[in-house]
Amino acid sequence: MFREFFAGVGTLLRGFRMWKTHTRLMALGLIPAFIAWAVLLAAIIPLLIWLGPITDWMTPFADGWSEPWQALVRFGLGAVIIVAALALAAAVFTALTLTIGDPFYQRIWRGIERSLGEEPTGETGFWSTVGEGIRLVLMGLLVALLTLLIGFIPVIGGIAATVIGVLLNGRVLARELTGRAFDARGLTGYSRSGMLRAGRARVIGFGVATQLCFLVPFGAIVTMPAAVAGSTLLAHDLLRRAKPGQQVAQGVVSTPAGRREATPPVADGAPAPVSPPPPPPGYSRA
Predict the structure, then answer these.
(1) Three-state secondary structure string covering the chain
(2) Which of 113, 137, 256, 281 has a CA that sits 20 to 30 A from residue 131's CA?
(3) pLDDT tens digits along 10-29
(4) Is the dihedral of CA 26, 28, 30, 33 positive or negative?
(5) Pairwise CA distance, residues 217 & 30, whole Å
(6) How far is 219 from 200, CA to CA, in rounded Å?
(7) Could you read off the pLDDT of 45-69 as tens digits, one per residue?
(8) What is the pTM of this model?
(9) What is the pLDDT of residues 229-277, one digit of tens each?
(10) What is the C-alpha to C-alpha distance for residues 44 and 38, in angstroms, rounded to an integer?
(11) Domain-by-domain residue ranges, the chain?
(12) Torsions phi, psi of 266, nearest 5?
């Protein structure tokens, strides 16, 4: 599981390496990412300014407490609020950036596909991107609320909320970012969910690494094109993993011992090979 998790982290690093080989293509994604980042920054700054009054309003029961308990409780709640806000901001940033920059990220995604020797014929329309973005924001809102509720657990609430929030939001981001590669291949939501579930640790590793890069100052702007490229590579990894399960229809069978053996091809019109009958009881080669 840990190996798969770090393989997901490595997939994002492979996306960053695309800056070296596809510099002009990747640079197209900077403009919409900067616009979305500026919009979210304008919303987060007032939250940080009013964080003290907000925590005081949410903890009236601590008004009569002595120090340092009052300060510790309100500081911990403020930290949880920031974590929840950042989880929601990551989802909103991704949805807003992909919607604003859909033509740019379509070119990045298709450029990476061509570099891998493939050219999916399916299309991911603008309204499909809008619908996925709305779903992502709603999922991000649920994760933020869950994070906020977990934060009220005494002693371990702050740490648990941070870890669970990053893991859940990482998976949500990875699902959204891989949507283009899956949708263009005509995969249904059920098939898509099955592949993401089969590679859960790798998907979460990619999503967590992406989210943590978003937290670095100006990191979200540079990371977004790399995340689109990396998500295409991640989708290819998941598709390759799913292919062995489809080989039964191509003449591959499973033996009782668990090995996979290929059945010999049979020419058209030729009778199928017949296995020799078992030897009679007591028969000896000698």
Answers:
(1) CHHHHHHHHHHHHHHHHHHHHCHHHHHCCHHHHHHHHHHHHHHHHHHHHCHHHHHHHHCHHHCCCCCCHHHHHHHHHHHHHHHHHHHHHHHHHHHHHHHHCHHHHHHHHHHHHHHCCCCCCCCCCHHHHHHHHHHHHHHHHHHHHHHHHHCCCCCCHHHHHHHHHHHHHHHHHHHHHCHHHHHCCCCCHHHHHHHHHHCHHHHHHHHHHHHHHHHCCCHHHHHHHHHHHHHHHHHHHHHHHHHHHHHHHHCEEECCCCCEEECCCCCCCCCCCCCCCCCCCCCCCC
(2) 113
(3) 999 999 998 988 888 889 88
(4) negative
(5) 15
(6) 25
(7) 999 899 989 888 888 887 878 878 8
(8) 0.74
(9) 999 999 888 888 775 544 333 333 333 333 333 344 444 444 444 444 5
(10) 10
(11) 2-243
(12) -120, 125
Write down the pLDDT at residue 254: 33
What is the b/e burial string over 56-89, where b = at least 16 CB atoms within 10 angstroms of the residue's CB?
A: eeebeebeeeeeeeeeebbebbbbbbbbbbbbbb
Beta-carbon contacts of residue 284 (< 8 Å; ≥ 6 apart): none
Q: Is the pLDDT of residue 86 over 50?
A: yes
Does residue 106 register a pLDDT over 70?
yes
Question: Quick one: tokens of 255?
Answer: 């033996």
